[in-house]
Design a protein that fits this description.
13 strands, UDP-N-acetylmuramoyl-L-alanine:D-glutamate ligase, four-stranded mixed beta sheet, about 280 residues, 7 helices, nine-stranded mixed beta sheet, about 25% helix, about 25% strand, alpha/beta
Length: about 280
């Protein structure tokens, strides 16, 4: 089962601390991890960890820091395509501090501020069961979603925040998985052509609605050790489960995978515990 994912890949520098520092305060970290991050990249790692084939379309470029992401994605079994390999600027970067006692975190990010142009059709791939887009590289997201719609492949949107491209992208989306903070100007997402709207809210129940039904699915109770990327893991599991489960079982499956992720400290410990790459 192949999931095609198009969007952001960052370099995450993650430091685990006893307490998050106050402004002007310096603290010593308990551990340091460097890994590929970002919504689409973390979702791709999840698909691979669950036993699927993950093809990630993203921007890495030629800067030396991009090699860190390439190495990590390869180690996690993710097949990736850099649509702008000649870009010399540093890749997107996130500085993360995670509080050891409860997994809460702070994140300072430099995301895809300037999305480069690209040529060709990198999304051309056989056997794709679902597509996930995060909207961070607008032309890439639109091209991938249009290709998927033409092929009859379900499109999942990771809607963490409103982006201008969503005006064009939403009519191409089958499932919009939104954060609790997501706000769309204008018409409701169902009125924009989205068949299913799902809203996550951390440890609170996940709500879903269609034109004819609505409901919610509880999140498993678990001791959280690290919440970094848990939403991205949830989206990856959701995309992997499309075609395998129907609502609300699809949401229950994604909830269970995300609950597994937060039990382990570090960006990749949960993957190793599953016996995957």
């Amino acid at each position: 089962m192949t999931v095609l994912l198009a969007g952001l890949c960052t370099i995450d520098v993650v430091q685990r601390v006893a307490e998050l520092p106050a402004p002007g305060e310096k603290v010593q970290s308990l551990s340091v991890d460097v890994a590929a991050g970002g919504p689409a990249a973390n979702a791709a790692v999840t698909v691979a960890a669950l036993g699927g084939r993950a093809r990630l379309l993203t921007v890495l470029g030629s800067h030396p820091l991009a090699g860190l992401a390439r190495a990590d994605l390869s180690a996690c079994g993710v097949d990736f395509v850099d649509i702008a390999p000649s870009v010399a600027d540093p890749p997107a970067l996130s500085a993360v501090a995670v509080r050891d006692r409860d997994g809460e975190r702070t994140v300072v990010s430099r995301n895809a501020a300037n999305s480069p142009a690209f040529s060709g059709a990198p999304w051309e791939l056989d056997g794709v069961s679902a597509v996930l887009v995060d909207g961070h590289h607008p032309e890439l997201a639109l091209g991938t979603a249009r290709w998927a719609r033409a092929q009859g492949i379900p499109v999942v949107l990771d809607a963490g925040s409103w982006k201008p491209v969503l005006d064009e992208l939403l009519p191409l989306v089958d499932i919009a998985a939104c954060s609790a903070h997501f706000r769309a100007p204008g018409p409701d997402l169902l009125d924009r052509g989205v068949a299913t709207v799902i809203t996550t809210a951390g440890a609170d129940p996940v709500r879903w609605r269609t034109a004819s039904a609505a409901g919610e699915v509880p999140v498993p109770a678990t001791e959280a050790r690290d919440t970094l990327g848990a939403g991205d893991v949830w989206h990856g599991a959701l995309a992997y489960g499309v075609g395998r489960f129907e609502l609300p079982e699809l949401i229950r499956y994604a909830n269970e995978v995300a609950a597994r992720r937060v039990r382990y400290a570090g960006p990749r410990a949960w993957v190793m515990r599953m016996g995957m790459p």
